[in-house]
Amino acid sequence: MTERRELMIGDFARRSRLPISTLRYYDRIRLLSPALVDPTTGYRRYTLEQLPAATLIARLRALGVPPASIARILTDRSTAATVLLHERQRIETQIEAGRRRLRQLDELLTDDAQSTYDVDIVTLHPREVAALPFLLPAAELEPGVTRTIARLRSALRHGGHRRTGPWGATFPVDLADNVSGFAFAPVDRIEPGDLDTAPLPAGRALTTIHRGSPATLPLAYHAVFASLDQRGACPGGPVLEEYTNLDNPNESTFTVRICLPINEPGEHPAPGH
Amino acid sequence: MTERRELMIGDFARRSRLPISTLRYYDRIRLLSPALVDPTTGYRRYTLEQLPAATLIARLRALGVPPASIARILTDRSTAATVLLHERQRIETQIEAGRRRLRQLDELLTDDAQSTYDVDIVTLHPREVAALPFLLPAAELEPGVTRTIARLRSALRHGGHRRTGPWGATFPVDLADNVSGFAFAPVDRIEPGDLDTAPLPAGRALTTIHRGSPATLPLAYHAVFASLDQRGACPGGPVLEEYTNLDNPNESTFTVRICLPINEPGEHPAPGH
DNA sequence: GCTGAGCCCTGAAGCCGGGTGAGAGTCAAG
DNA sequence: CTTGACTCTCACCCGGCTTCAGGGCTCAGC
């Protein structure tokens, strides 16, 4: 009945409360195209029937739903619930990230004596540990290591092994695009074929302990590198991180021990390289 | 002592855990420039002293602090606390916005019988009300009106006036870039010079009631416009919104009455325009 | 028929915070 | 001298639009 009632883009913009430029953009990306385009003038003609779609788009965009997802909802209404639940999850993670940032910002604000790290020099003894390798983009190192440790944990449980020390991970000092290393844990018994194992780097190493949020871990590395320069030494192998209180959800008790094997000045490079 | 120790961009990138491309970018926007640039080769030389700054930048960027704010912090350490508190507030509003979006998304998911609006035709009688004008960008209409009503509220309190009906606002139907209109409230007495007052639009009007989150208000407008088309009428003056349960923080009881003055077919346009 | 106002069109460029790639120059080791 | 790793600049890409320049269409008034 109202099918012949057509609106120029300006009328449609006022009705839908969307800017004209945005409507043209939505036409370009095929999110919402006019019912008809005059073939001679190129004028866009919208119909009243298109208004609910425009309103839905405006609502969803205001909620931050990306146009691509909205297009999926419009073309296939049956997937709407799935897509929306997915968006819901996205917003929830965003909120969680916001909370975490808030905490870290507060740390920054209250943290005055933050960068006092004591770097010691120690000798690492050779150790054979249960290990699980990973290959991760540098940007996802921290969550990826956490996941790898979780998998190692269940592997140990299945094998009936008992952990005799803190969880850890080792990987090259220089983080390339993709970091390959392994998560590890010392265990009570090593049986061939039963479990993947690996030797940990050994020899002289610089070590320091970082407490609290992993976000400030680079500061600890900075201290280690400064000490390295001071001694005129250079890195002698993959770095080693040991995590304690990993299972404790309270972030403030979380601690990381960093061990960086070194070649001291006037020394031959470590064998095996 | 270590002042002569210089790092090429690659070394500095590994130490600071920032991508080389980002370091070059930060140089371009003068957020973090190398201590020295070789005049013949153009090679950037960073010093160890710049590492803490790089680490600080990385931390703040990870928290979503924009580079411009970080630059302010770096050039003037005394403003750091101010800037950080400001960022803190920004994140808090972000989280709040996320929560609101979540609620609205849930409304979308649960809302099935959403778009049933009954549009009635009524006659508005002329009324003189206490008023406070506003001029707002269309995008900030809703919060701006809320703020204007708050100012009107305190003006009424100062003048010892008593409100005799719901808060409201009126503004043109076609939202231009800047919307000029006024917030109003009917009061018990009108005395010249005592309070700004204004007449409300009168005559025949279409009206409907919207309940719940303001985010879905456009649906109500859509229903009003559809009714307008059906009657072959056109808008006859600024639209009028009346808000009840505005003071109640519970969003689900919030209701808006929309009144759109109209010119009915075959009628002369309203006088006064 | 002409003019001007107010619509409308297209295509290109700009915004942020970088990421990516081409093509060329530099440096140290063998 | 060559090789390979490193560096440089310049320019273009992303999303989700907005804005601008340069034009065409339509209608009312004269």
Strand-helix topology:
The structure is a homodimer of 273-residue chains.
Chain A: E1 6-8, H1 9-16, H2 20-28, E2 36-37, E3 44-47, H3 51-62, H4 67-75, H5 80-110, E4 120-124, E5 128-137, H6 141-159, E6 167-171, E7 178-185, E8 197-199, E9 203-211, H7 217-230, E10 234-235, E11 239-244, E12 255-263
Antiparallel strand pairs in A: 1-3, 2-3, 4-9, 5-7, 5-8, 6-7, 6-11, 9-12, 10-12, 11-12
The structure holds a DNA duplex (30 and 30 nucleotides).
The CATH H-level homologous superfamily of the largest domain in chain A: Regulatory factor, effector binding domain
Number of strands of chain A: 12
Given helix and strand content, the structural type of chain A is alpha+beta
Describe the sheet with the most strands of chain A: 9 strands, antiparallel
CATH top-level class of the largest domain in chain A? Alpha Beta
Instruction: Report the CATH architecture of the largest domain in chain A.
Output: Alpha-Beta Barrel
Summarize model confidence as the mean pLDDT of chain A: 83
Low-confidence stretches of chain A: 268-273
Biggest interface, chains and residues, is:
A-B, 49 and 49 residues
Instruction: Supply Rg of chain A.
Output: 29 Å
- Rough outline of chain A: elongated
Helical fraction of chain A equals 25-40%
Distance between the termini of chain A: 82 Å
Report the sheet-strand fraction of chain A: 15-25%
Count of discrete alpha- or pi-helical segments spanning 4 or more residues of chain A: 7
Tally of individual domains of chain A: 2
